[in-house]
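Batch manifest, entry 17 of 40.
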Amino acid sequence: MAPRSSARSTRHPLRSATLAAAVLGLATGLAGAVAPAAQAADPAPVGPNQFFSGLVNGSATDPAIQMACYGPVTPGELGHPLPGQSVEVLPASAAGTADVGYTGSAADGIVANFGPTSTALPVTLGYYAVPVAIPTGLVLPCSGTGTVVFTPEPGSPTARSATLPVRYVAQP
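Output type: C-alpha cells
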C-alpha cells in the first residue's frame, strides 16, 4: 500500500501556494482600492497665509465654460452658462506653474469673479477641493475668451489674486 502522506505532501504545498497567491492578490487589490482614496484631496477650510490655485470645471489648463447660446453667435452677444459647471480652489505650492494666489494675513474665503461682463454677484469659496456651481444667472460672452479671478476675502496688503484664462463656448 502506497503511503498517503506522500500524496498529501505534494498537494499540501500546492494548496499553500494557491492560498498564498489568493491572499496576496486580495491584499494587493485592497491596497489598490485604498490608494486613490488616500490621495484624494480632503476638503479643508480656506485660511490666512495659504497659496492656492483656481479651477473651472475641474481644470486649470484651458478650461471652457459652456454657454446656453444656440445658433449663429454674433460678436458681443451675451448669454447664460449651462448648468452643471463649477469653480473650485485647491491648495498650491509657492512655486506652482499656474497663476498662484495667496490668501494673505486675513482671508477666510476666496471669491471667484467672472469679469467685467458678469452681471451677477461673484461666487464665494470657503473650502479647498469643494466645487461650487457656476450660477446660471450670470451674463457672460457667448464665445471668446475671458478670465475668472479668484480673490482672497477679506483682503489684506499681502493677499494676491489668482487669474485663470477661460474660453466661452456657444452650443451648436
